[in-house]
Give the backbone structure.
Amino acid sequence: MVLNLNVETSRGNWESAREVFLTMVFKFKVTVNATNPFSKKFALTPKNLEITNLKVLMKDKEMEMEQMMIQSVVNIQLENFKKQFREYPFQMQDLLSKNPKEL
């Protein structure tokens, strides 16, 4: 993900203050209940969401202290957000039953 933070230096004149490049990782678990072969039940369970890589640049200069503070604060908030994760169940009908017999 790329973010560009602009600052209005004077009325109608904008300058780029920081450029932020970040990588986020979303991990989840998939379970399948195939007790009924004609109607399989799937469930997605989110496990983790975090920023794994963050770069903050100010005119080609890397701002290391800002990077560490932003990554730490955001990951703490994402850790608190994980408490709201819940399982997302859905059904997928058997693909063969939806296709014509000729196939």
Summary: The longest strand covers residues 13-33.
